[in-house]
Amino acid sequence: MPTDKPNISVFFPVYKDELTVERVTRKALDVLADVAADYEVLIVDDGTPCRAGEIADRLAAENPKVRVIHHPRNLGYGAAIRTGLENVRYDWVCFTDGDDEYDIYDLHKLIRLKDYYDLIITFRYVKAYSGFRIFISWIYNIVLRMLFRTHYRDISTGLRLMKRELVEELNLQSTSPFVGAEIAIKTMLKGFRVGEVGIQTFPREFGKGSSTSMRNILATIKDMLACHRTIFSESYDLPANRNRAKKEGP
Length: 250
What we know:
By secondary structure, the chain is of the alpha/beta class. The protein has a single domain (8-231), classed as Spore Coat Polysaccharide Biosynthesis Protein SpsA, Chain A (Alpha-Beta Complex). The chain is 38% helix and 17% strand. The protein has eight helices and seven strands. It has helices at 21-35, 52-62, 77-87, 107-111, 131-148, 166-170, 179-189, 214-231, and strands at residues 8-14, 39-45, 66-70, 92-95, 119-126, 160-163, 194-200. It is globular, with a radius of gyration of 18 Å. The mean pLDDT is 90.
């Protein structure tokens, strides 16, 4: 198995994550020093009302491997993910969430598959969540498998590794948590290789996650339907020598 260390960017969005932003950053730096030849950590402050952005700035001032991008206002999880993907510097990109529910040390597992896949997503085989959130996640994944004809077990889990070159191919549109599913679905349809790795998750230590809030559920449904219209349209990703121009009437 090849052992060459790649160059890796790790990024994560923060919103009301002031108690974990420093921990996630330091864990990311630690694991990257072990698995990467060169690396960076990019923190995307999605207009957070807490001190997470301020803490991120301090971490960047202390370590040149850390960078911060601030959204002037809260634009949504998907928008923060797209900002990160558009601003990373290295060939491989790992992204996670800023609340430490997903452990960045699992990058050790994902990096083992870098020579075989272009996108490596994760599925949660141990979920330390409320029963309601587990139920919502179960329904969500069933709906996505039916709508988009996929086989993924847990398509939107917030830890993944991908080649940066995919970003320009995918033309991501989502601003909601649906962005994780959009990445996996479009990567598959573009003919790139998608792999899955099982991980455990850990309970949020403060506050409540917003992924199952009514606002995010509605935004996710909106993005999901828009993506479905795009992908199943007659003009999506046609071969270069084909078109579906409408015939003129008699």
